[in-house]
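Hey,

The postdoc asked me to send both predictions to you directly instead of through the lab channel. I've kept everything plain text so nothing gets mangled by the mail client. Protein one:
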Amino acid sequence: MPVHRIEVRAIHAGDDPAGASTLNEIRELGFNEVTDVRASRIFLLQGPDDLLSPAALERIAREVLIDPVTETFGLGAEPSHADEGAKIIEVHLKPGVMDPVAASCEMAIADLLRVPAGTVEVRTGRKYTLLVHIHDDLLALIAKRLLVNESIETGHFQPFTPAAFPHGEPYQFRLTHVPIRGLSDDQLLDLSRGVPFARWFVGA
């Protein structure tokens, strides 16, 4: 099942507080080369092809994802504004990180399409379009210092749409016995440092 992308953005710049706030934070860091920031919300959807037709995706966007008074949307990746010197930073959660917004969207989409919950999976992300003429190293610095929490998120500098959603493997408990009372001081020190102890018993 392919992954479909919907981008939601403000109709008018005045209705984009996330973009304005990000611009102020960037300037507080001293990066005055940035002249404007436009923020978008990204929704990635995966489900049966017969459910996620272009018409169905438009309906989902209009009835579930946007505020029709202040927001509009596009299917697929929106133009990058490269002709204006724009740079893109996208932020996506790492696999396994809780995404309450996505969970709420899944329930709303299931109600809208009258299908069981979870039939359509959703992942969310954020996109920042920076109007700026800077080199990629400085763009990466802005992403790292301001926009991306590397413990739970990944940053991308091009529109990101995975071929499929990754799924974790079931946890398999493995019991390991360590004969602590019989270890030497050096072996105990290795153990505290996380050195694999199996080598102590195989003649290594």
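Protein two:
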Amino acid sequence: RDYPSAIRRYAEIVQPPIGRLNLGAVMDAYLREKVPTKKPRTQADYTEAIARLRPVFGAMQPDDLQPKHVYQYLRERSARTRANREVAVLSNVMQQAIEMGLVDANPCRQVRRNPEAPREREVLDAEVAALMAHTPGWMDAYIAIKSLTGLRQGDMLRLTLFAARDD
């Protein structure tokens, strides 16, 4: 019945005043401002992590988040390595909260992550050969260079012709 008050109420629901932004709103700001600057795979990973973090932390006020809450999340999340990645994203969200002037410190930085075990199995030469029987020539070259150098994928993709030397 009263259009101006309805618009004011709608604005409160959609965008609460700056002092009352919860972590869900900060997550939205992070998704809107920072995630699009990342590579597509990272964007997908961060979006998925925020989808898991939002039900747990989204309603909290940024200044209410404490290391004990993050430790509890790490303890209760069954996928321990994945929990480490999600806490890293939560730390990025808290950095966003700092930039927005909502908090002064990032409590995630005080948290020691779950231990991660390295892979227990090395890919066998026979498995690599079986794979290469089904790949195009350029992929065979990629696999051969990767096997010889041990470079990570990102480092391999940044290689240029100038990196090739006789040695």
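Summary for protein two, as requested: The longest helix spans residues 80-99.

Thanks,
C.
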